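Something for you to look into today, if you have time. I want to see for myself how the chain folds. Leave the record below and I will have a look.
***
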Amino acid sequence: MLTVRRFDKVKILWGKDRGKEGEIISIDPAKARVLVAKMNLAKRHTRPMGQKDQGGIKDKELYIPISKVMLVCLECKKPNRPKFDSLSDGTPIRLCRKCGGTIPEPKKK
């Protein structure tokens, strides 16, 4: 079971963006990597494709190992490793280890 999900807010623990917070765009569970919005950017030289798309140097997000990001609790605003529990009907929930509050499922945009 993954501790982070798409649209979760995470804190970067590693690399040039260490200490910054961002939102997960996508997850690759097979390779254990996540893509965080506007983090771990690299320059990509692109060619023009048609008349609309101009070529040039563009920023592209690169994947970060999932072990180098930590989930941020929405209540206490602190990064932590969530604890898993289940409700009486068997639905799994994530709990904050620092404040004890529940970490809700991220809302899809």
Remarks:
- The mean pLDDT is 92.
- The CA atoms of residues 47 and 53 lie 9 Å apart.
- The beta strands are 9-12, 21-28, 33-36, 41-46, 56-61, 64-65, 69-71, 83-86, 92-95, 102-103.
- The radius of gyration is 17 Å.
